[in-house]
Amino acid sequence: MSSASSPPHFDSPVLVACDGTSVALSEALFNAGRLATRAFGGPLEVLGICEPTPGVAAGMDVLPVPAHLDEERRVSMLEDVQRIISIADAGDLSWPVDVQLGSPSRVLAAEALHRHASVIVMGIGRHNPLDRLFGSETTLATLRASRVPVLAVSANFPAHPTHAVVGLDFSAASVHAARLAARLVAPDGRLTLVHVRPQFEHRSADWQAWDVDYGRTLPSLFDQVRAQLDPPDGVIVETVTVRGDPASSLLSFVQQVQCDLLAVGTQRRRVLERLVVGSVATKVLRTARCGVLAVPSA
After folding, report:
1. Fewest C-beta atoms under 10 Å: which of 10, 35, 77, 288?
2. Per-residue confidence (pLDDT) for residue 61, from 0 to 100
3. Does some domain include residue 158?
4. What is the number of structural domains in the chain?
5. Long-range CB pairs of 182-185, under 8 A, 24+ apart, other chains included
């Protein structure tokens, strides 16, 4: 088994993405940010991203938007974010706040890298199909561009998650996801490590022999991961093995247990690493109803 990635440095900031438009979502973002600072250390920093207004087609030419108009929009968003921090129960006026112009995914990824952030906390729509589509696509775009874990939450994300599920394929990224998720669970909560074993409709004798050998390795692999976790006192760590398609089986398990957080590692192809995020992480981010922690491979 590959070794897990290094844990966050305890002076690394938690970067919370907020546009100041929803009090309910901002409350969840700030609670998630506070949770991450307690788990990983470091200060909380708030960042808003204001997308530049696209140019307007005028005949064969494109009429650019005057720069001062976008600057006015940026300042307006900054005021909105500062206002929502001031009225949110979980807000803190001492937090540093910045709003920048640019593509949300690119700016978030670049700022997280520049600030050596431990995690990016951002919102994801979960109220209707369009919210899920656009919210998850923004999160996926950020994950594609980021080398930093992304914690995506909706307005109903609890301030103190009591049950986290980790999709564990024993890769370095999934082990890292387990280590981070272990720190996010509240004392006396539960951390469930779920491994999805392959399943084939037509089982040959060779496949069955391989499957038996495969099953024998799982207890020691689970033990190796458990030894690397550092959960809060009282947290119960349990292991579960299911069969089937990795994404569908994991999502089905999560729906069954009604957990607060689902953590997964993401695998990238070297040539296409900025275009493709692992299929399990993609389906999870688009479908899961709980908070999602997606941890990119190193």
Report:
1. 10
2. 67
3. yes
4. 1
5. 182/229, 182/230, 182/231, 182/235, 182/237, 183/39, 183/40, 183/230, 183/231, 183/232, 184/35, 184/36, 184/39, 184/261, 184/293, 185/161, 185/231, 185/232, 185/235, 185/261
Q: Residue type at 118?
A: S
Which one, of 226, 223, 115, 139, lies nearest residue 179 by Cα?
226
What is the domain extent for residue 43? 14-296
Sign of CA pseudo-dihedral 228, 278, 1, 193: positive
CB atoms within 10 A of CB 103: 16
Contact partners, residue 209, CB within 8 Å, separation at least 6: none
At position 237, the amino acid (one-letter code) is: V
- Report if residue 1 sits inside a domain: no
Predicted confidence band of residue 214 (pLDDT cuts 50, 70, 90) = confident
With a cut of 90, say whether residue 195 has pLDDT above it. Answer: yes
Q: Is the dihedral angle over the CA atoms 110, 115, 116, 120 positive or is it negative?
A: negative
Q: What is the CATH number of the domain that holds 116?
A: 3.40.50.12370
pTM over 0.90: no
